[in-house]
Amino acid sequence: MNEIQEFSQQLLDNVERVIIGKRDVLERLMVAILCEGHVLLEDVPGTGKTMLARALAAGLGIDFKRLQCTPDLLPNDVTGVSVYDPQRQEFAFIPGPVFTNILLADEINRATPRTQSALLEAMGERQVTVDGVTRRLEPPFLVIASQNPVEYEGTFPLPEAQLDRFFMKLTLGYLDEATESQMLLNLGGAHPIETIGAVVDGRRLPALARQVWDIHVDETIRAYIVTLAFATRRHSDLLLGASPRGSHALYRAAQAYAALHGRDYVLPDDVKYLAAPVLAHRCLLHPESALRGATLPDVIAGIIQEAPLAIGEL
């Protein structure tokens, strides 16, 4: 697993030249990348969501495109369109921005549901169907979407089916005082994003993802993951629990996190650490529970505290 660890550390160290003080978030993002999973970044404006996606693509040295989502964005603006060529007397396909390696869907909740759904096939199947023709997306293909949780006017909340396509939901949050002071010092001249380059070969990601499959997961830990998933489906505060896709994502995430730290086996703490960012956005609170102040991360934290783990069998 040294290959995965070395690859990850080089990339994370490079991204930290732009995004400082958020190593824990960067590691979780790296976990999603190693699992070829899509990521939803939800945070207030100005916390570095767009800059994070740009720095990641620059460090990987792969193709990057940004899609600015607005209410007038059409599905063909995402997937591409067939245009008639009078010289050849046939239709020619013009690929949309989805034909890339890393797609940043900025403010995805500002796009209409019809346009949001244009990403569903791409995220789930790594392919796009336009005018009855299916076209494969070249690996690696990752969607990093951002949204603002504060502003609701002119937005269209993502449906549960689309949220479930995101491997992980992350929040950068504000910096502490010392780190924000260091950020101002770093930005005293040219922005670091202008000087960082590729430090790893992003084309290796599919091969590294296959290596993650070899990380050992004990039967007891596998049962623990299933216990957590079923607990979300039975919890009194939740109208909707995590899907089977969610339990599989948690299983894969724990494997990738172990590989990231140079281990060939998963620990229970790996599962606990990743449960909230992997499972919370796949659940739905009861309206009454939300009015009482319950939050999805808090519910997942409570489930982790209560869910049994037969540690003696490990």
UniProtKB/TrEMBL annotation:
Pfam families, per database record: AAA_3, AAA_lid_2
SMART domains: AAA (SM00382)
Gene Ontology molecular-function annotations: ATP binding; ATP hydrolysis activity
Coiled coil: none
Keyword ATP-binding: yes
Domain AAA+ ATPase, first and last residues per copy: 35-176
Keywords: ATP-binding, Nucleotide-binding
Keyword Nucleus among record annotations: no
Family statement drawn from the similarity comment of this UniProt entry: Belongs to the MoxR family.
Protein name: AAA+ ATPase domain-containing protein
